[in-house]
């Protein structure tokens, strides 16, 4: 798969670990940075990765910030993105199998390099199961469409 990775300044080393793990699994990884010592606000790179995945230029995205929280919130603002922040492999795997997550975020101040590699591996080797989960993921996609309707029609009644 084509994977795009990015972080803020807090996540540089862990991003390298995760990108390396993805490459070991045979994936093609594009690393958007930042370089060590370069400051980047997490919403900038969260949105960048989100837009590239949503546009179909990459299949999946990897994100890292201090907690994984801020950068995943930013990515989730992009229509079509289902970003998850995970600190253990079980949630990472289930987020692929049940939620069809397309961006994985990890916190560099939360998780060490070995665990981050396990989380990345669990996420990248799991596949979406479809079936009843597809209907639920569609309900999430409907929320994206509703949000756009809210923006376009500010006086739309709240249900
Ligand atoms: C940066 O200091 C820190 O706030 C950021 O990496 C992240 O943890 C935000 O959610």
Detailed description of the structure:
The protein is α/β, with parallel strands linked by helices. The protein has one domain: Ribose 5-phosphate Isomerase B, Chain: A. It has helices at 12-24, 42-54, 69-76, 89-97, 113-125, 132-152; strands at 2-7, 28-31, 60-65, 83-85, 103-107. Strands 2-1-3-5-4 form a 5-stranded parallel β-sheet, with helices on both faces. The model has no long low-confidence stretch (mean pLDDT 96). D-ribose binds next to helix 3.
Write the layout of secondary structure elements.
Layout: E1 2-7, H1 12-24, E2 28-31, H2 42-54, E3 60-65, H3 69-76, E4 83-85, H4 89-97, E5 103-107, H5 113-125, H6 132-152
Parallel strand pairs: 1-2, 1-3, 3-5, 4-5
Bound molecules: D-ribose.
Number of helices: 6
What is the CATH homology-level superfamily?
A: Sugar-phosphate isomerase, RpiB/LacA/LacB
User: What is the end-to-end distance?
Assistant: 40 Å
CATH fold assignment: Ribose 5-phosphate Isomerase B, Chain: A
The neighbouring-strand order within the major sheet is: 2-1-3-5-4
CATH architecture: 3-Layer(aba) Sandwich
| Each distinct ligand | D-ribose
Oligomeric state of shown chains = single chain
Q: CATH class, please? A: Alpha Beta
Structural class: alpha/beta
Percent of residues in beta strands?
A: 15-25%
The portion of residues assigned to helices is 40-55%
What is the ordering of alpha helices and beta strands?
EHEHEHEHEHH
Shape descriptor reads: globular
Q: What is the C-alpha radius of gyration, as a whole number of Å?
A: 16 Å
The overall pLDDT average reads 96
Number of domains: 1
Largest sheet: 5 strands, parallel
Which blocks of ≥5 consecutive residues have pLDDT under 50? none
Count every beta strand, where a strand is a DSSP E run of 2 or more residues.
5
